[in-house]
Design goal:
By secondary structure, the protein is α/β, with parallel strands linked by helices. The protein is built from 18 helices and 13 strands. The strands form two sheets. Strands 5, 6, 7, 8, 9, 10, 11, 12 and 13 form a nine-stranded mixed sheet that branches. A four-stranded antiparallel sheet has the order 2-3-1-4, with helices on one face.
Length: 396
């Protein structure tokens, strides 16, 4: 493919991604993969170049653009090589007109930025959209971080995460035999900090209420030496069924899974009511802390979607609280930097649950910042995904 043809293909893919963002359709990665399957003539270099164009545009443009061409023209205005591809050649984009609409560039819409936690300032914007590194977590049941350092000498330790090892973006770490042997998992540093902040030990009885595919469940099993009793729950069968084979690979033997029906969680967890020493509520959220990995999420968030997330978060936190034994712990977490999903949720929870208290000192020194009753992690300050967490203690 010619450079111009690659640009035109990127434009066509961006058209589909922008429409999907507005309409709640498939994610960008799925759309890109399908587009490449339909263009089998594209070689590996073509695919890499097209992907780079697509994601450069997604990162640069703050809201879903009216057209893919408008997004690419916004990039072309600051890249002469890209601008030269708008030459009207066969299979390439039409010659650019200076009067054509350009998509607006920037971090996000002003209305969305206004929702951020007030401790975040504009200096953090570049880090929120930079390419994320690949973070690994050594599985203590099989290996240790020193072994990761030997396997991947190009990496470096993650501050405050004793099992964490950081590699350059898109390192093919999972192709290592050590991965299939359970020596490590791919897990962002923020999730590693949150798993440790739960504070579970070998004698703990843990409920991971929103376990998904089990990344944090496995981290808790590793931290507790596979001695804690862990119940991993989720409402998604497709996600939860990923956990048993992952646990087998990791050597984690004390994890039970339970599929929950939305709206019936309390009844389906009645046998755990008031018995868990630790409950982890990694609630569904806006994903505003993960824009480095999924930048099109900025295009997808609507006021209605945010309100649904906030309602679900409060409901799940209350369900989790009912499972906690007297004096036990509940860790509330979201991969979000939006104030209402973080510090406001915790303040509202404490208002609904008299006698509960918010813990201090749950993160390693130098990691995160206080945000109301919890703590906020950001890419700019902490080098990890944006994340809010709070550890809450039940009255005795």
């Amino acid at each position: 493919m010619t450079p111009a043809a690659r640009v035109q293909t990127a434009i066509e893919i961006l058209d589909v991604i922008a429409a999907a963002a507005r309409e709640g359709g498939p994610p960008a990665d799925a759309i890109f993969a399908e587009a490449m399957r339909a263009r089998r003539y594209a070689g590996s270099k073509d695919r890499r170049a097209i992907r780079a164009h697509v994601y450069d545009a997604i990162r640069a443009v703050r809201t879903a653009p009216p057209t893919g061409r408008a997004a690419m023209l916004a990039l072309a205005d600051r890249d002469p090589d890209l601008a030269a591809c708008f030459d009207g050649s066969p299979y390439g984009p039409a010659i650019a007109d200076a009067q054509e609409d350009r998509a607006e560039t920037g971090l996000a819409s002003p209305a969305l930025i206004d929702l951020f936690d007030p401790s975040i300032d504009e200096s953090e914007a570049p880090a929120m959209l930079a390419r994320a590194p690949l973070d690994l977590r050594a599985n203590r049941l099989v290996s240790q971080r020193d072994a990761l350092a030997a396997l991947f000498p190009e990496g470096q330790p993650i501050a405050g995460a004793p099992d964490g090892w950081r590699l350059p973006p898109e390192t093919a770490a999972t192709q290592s035999p050590a991965y299939s042997e359970g020596a490590f998992e791919v897990q962002d540093a923020a999730s590693q900090y949150a798993s440790a902040a739960l504070g579970a030990g070998p004698d703990s009885a843990v409920v991971d209420l929103c376990a998904g595919g089990g990344g944090k469940t496995l981290a808790i099993a590793s931290l507790t030496g596979d001695a804690a009793k862990i119940l991993a729950c989720d409402a998604s069968r497709a996600r939860l069924q990923q956990l048993p084979p992952r646990a087998a690979r990791a050597g984690a033997t004390r994890i039970e899974t339970r599929l929950l029906n939305p709206g019936q969680e309390t009844e389906m967890l009645a046998d755990w009511r008031g018995k868990a020493t630790h409950v982890f509520v990694d609630a569904p959220c806006s994903g505003s802390g993960t824009w480095r990995r999924s930048p099109e999420l900025r295009w997808r968030l609507t006021p209605a979607r945010l309100e649904r997330h906030i309602a679900d978060q409060a409901r799940l936190a209350d369900i989790g609280a009912a499972l906690v034994a007297p004096g036990g712990k509940l860790l509330y977490a979201v991969c979000s930097i939006i104030e209402r999903e973080g510090r406001v949720q915790v303040a509202d929870f404490l208002g609904r649950h008299p006698g509960w208290t918010a813990d201090s000192g749950v993160l390693p020194e130098g990691v995160g910042r206080a945000a109301g009753g919890g703590f906020l992690l950001t890419p700019g300050r902490d080098g990890c995904d944006g994340f809010f967490l709070a550890r809450l203690t039940a009255p005795c």
